[in-house]
Amino acid sequence: MHAKHEFCCVIHFAGLKAVGESCIIPLTYYQVNVCGSINLFLVMKEHNVKRLVFSSSSTVYGEPQFLPITESHPVGQNLLNGYAKSKYYIEGILQDLCNSDKEWFVIILRYFNPVGAHSSGTLGEDPNGIPNNLMPYVAHVAVGNIPNLNVFGNDYNTIDGTGVRDYLHIMDLAEGHVSALEKMLKSNDSGAIAINLGTGNGYSVLQVINMFSEVSKRKIKYEIVGRRSGDCGSSYCDASFAKEYLGWEAKRTLKEMCEDTWRWQSLYPQGFSTKT
């Protein structure tokens, strides 16, 4: 078959990503994430395209052994859910691929909790059914779609007992991919290089709720329930290597993450299907 276009690099975003769901349907996560990735890599190899930016996750670090988490933190130990394991397995496959063929160059981006929306309010997160992640769940409570939020555990060793995460604005994340792509296209590097993408700051669930309430001027009703399977207490990164290697760093604040999410949710209270 004649190739209509030429490709020099692939950015691999595709996959299932809900921590809780991956504990319920792990086979689906392995089938989509791991098998789907292998199929992609085979097609890339067939067409001699050997440069890849891969969306991985901070969950490959498991229960943090130290904070902030650097790229030298052990991976694959005490992984808490099927999602984390699927990302870890894919990273291992990519390492093996790069070891077997020195023409491959892979930048593995380990995301820390992307949230937010485009500042225009026209592009945001529209999950199917009940949201699996904190920020869209809070937004749906604020707009009145869901009566209250379940906070999974308030007995962690954190500032207020609720889980702490490194929340990253989705636009900072997008810019991180552009930086990775630019590095890839002008560099003669090879092998697989893992890079944290985060702000380096941790915020608790209650801090996010309070900030969203302040921004939206809506009371966010919540209920403390038991810990959720697959969660750890705190996770935030050292993002200094991303600045050193890619020239990238996160710029947007938690307040901006909440403001942009609320702008999107206000314009599209029922998601893309309806608009006020």
UniProtKB/TrEMBL annotation:
Keywords: Carbohydrate metabolism, Galactose metabolism, Isomerase, NAD
GO cellular component, one term: cytosol
CDD domains, per database record: UDP_G4E_1_SDR_e
One Gene Ontology term from the biological process aspect of the record: galactose catabolic process via UDP-galactose, Leloir pathway
Cross-referenced Gene3D superfamilies: NAD(P)-binding Rossmann-like Domain, UDP-galactose 4-epimerase, domain 1
Pathway linked to the protein: Carbohydrate metabolism; galactose metabolism
Enzyme Commission designation: 5.1.3.2
Catalyzed chemical reaction(s): UDP-alpha-D-glucose = UDP-alpha-D-galactose; UDP-N-acetyl-alpha-D-glucosamine = UDP-N-acetyl-alpha-D-galactosamine
NAD(P)-binding domain: residues covered: 4-261
Known cofactor(s): NAD(+)
Molecular functions per Gene Ontology: UDP-glucose 4-epimerase activity; UDP-N-acetylglucosamine 4-epimerase activity
InterPro entries per record: NAD(P)-bd_dom, NAD(P)-bd_dom_sf, UDP_G4E
Job of this protein: Catalyzes two distinct but analogous reactions: the reversible epimerization of UDP-glucose to UDP-galactose and the reversible epimerization of UDP-N-acetylglucosamine to UDP-N-acetylgalactosamine. The reaction with UDP-Gal plays a critical role in the Leloir pathway of galactose catabolism in which galactose is converted to the glycolytic intermediate glucose 6-phosphate. It contributes to the catabolism of dietary galactose and enables the endogenous biosynthesis of both UDP-Gal and UDP-GalNAc when exogenous sources are limited.
Record-stated family: Belongs to the NAD(P)-dependent epimerase/dehydratase family.
Complex formation: Homodimer.
Protein name: UDP-glucose 4-epimerase
Top-level taxonomy: Eukaryota, Metazoa, Ecdysozoa, Arthropoda, Hexapoda
